[in-house]
């Protein structure tokens, strides 16, 4: 088993290394940013308003509101990566890693927009009358011939594997660890609680998932951010120095300090991008599965709403985590303390045991919400692979697996999950590049017609007719 784990680690290091997936992720995001003329910078406030204030675009077909689609995607992405992933990046790559996480988030917004746009653009109605879409559909339907079929099938298979790894086992383990640290609850009890809670949520399908995440996700993010703000206020005098470390170390590397062994530019870049993608999933294609279920009158509208998910995840939640770790001076403990680094930082910044308690509770909420979001992703991919009759067995197995995740050591599973993430992203990134022309053409045409996303359903229908585009 040790040889197998070592082999997996070597493959994972190559896939997520500086010469394979990292340049492809950044390059794809950069290409899409250029082709979309800096869409994420030009339309961010409009997108935030449409997704968080207007919230419900009820004018189009779909199963859940665009806000519920956003919170479902946030549920799947705001998880362990926002707490442990950030700590791992900084403890190995230094404070400069946070800068590269920001870069990944900024260019990743264009990737997230494009995959959500395509998810809605090529979605279809399944045998139960529900909307179904994502890379498993748009890669095959958008890219004609054998290549599209191969890419779509590859994504489907790797996404199913990832749903049980990064979307279930590792998250359930994090929940059990958090509950044990915060309240002394034994892992097998946590496993039973999650089994019952997850089964109750999944019983109602995407409508139930959408309602739960719409109520649950904003509260969990708010709890964590408020705790981080308190820490930063207490350590306000250290914030300018923290920013200086972030920007200087991003380009010069970090000297050895404390338990930190030091890192160069390449390591800071590698850790920042890898952990950034682990956190926000931009370019992986998964969030487009939730976007495809949204009620919307045009793919551009939901694409922009989905784009804000990366902004919230990386430019907000990840930033708060990173600043807390760096400003409290706990960042240089060394990579062997990565698992507890965020908790140590909050504990150093808040009196008593409140800091560690906030992190433990947040970890429980973040990880369980990720399980809920990924259950839907995996189910939709299973349906694509074997048909609608595969949905119920998948839900049952997925719910059972959560118990084993809570009660089992998962070193090998973590590596396999990370590898499945990378292999899932590969066909999607190829597809995004090949379909970037279609995305840019239809996006720019729609935004010229409706730059503020205020057009009525009837106006949008007339626009589509004039463009000769029947995306439904």
Automatic annotation (TrEMBL):
Subcellular locations according to the entry: Cell membrane
Main location: membrane
Mode of membrane association: Multi-pass membrane protein
CC terms in the record's Gene Ontology section: plasma membrane
Pfam hit, one: Na_Ala_symp
Gene Ontology MF terms in the entry: amino acid:sodium symporter activity
Keyword terms of this UniProt record: Cell membrane, Membrane, Symport, Transmembrane, Transmembrane helix, Transport
Residue runs in coiled coils: none
Transmembrane segments: 14-34, 150-169, 189-206, 213-234, 246-269, 311-331, 351-377, 397-417, 429-447
The family this protein is said to belong to: Belongs to the alanine or glycine:cation symporter (AGCS) (TC 2.A.25) family.
Name by which UniProt lists this protein: Amino-acid carrier protein AlsT
Source organism of the structure: Corynebacterium kalinowskii
Lineage: Bacteria, Bacillati, Actinomycetota, Actinomycetes, Mycobacteriales
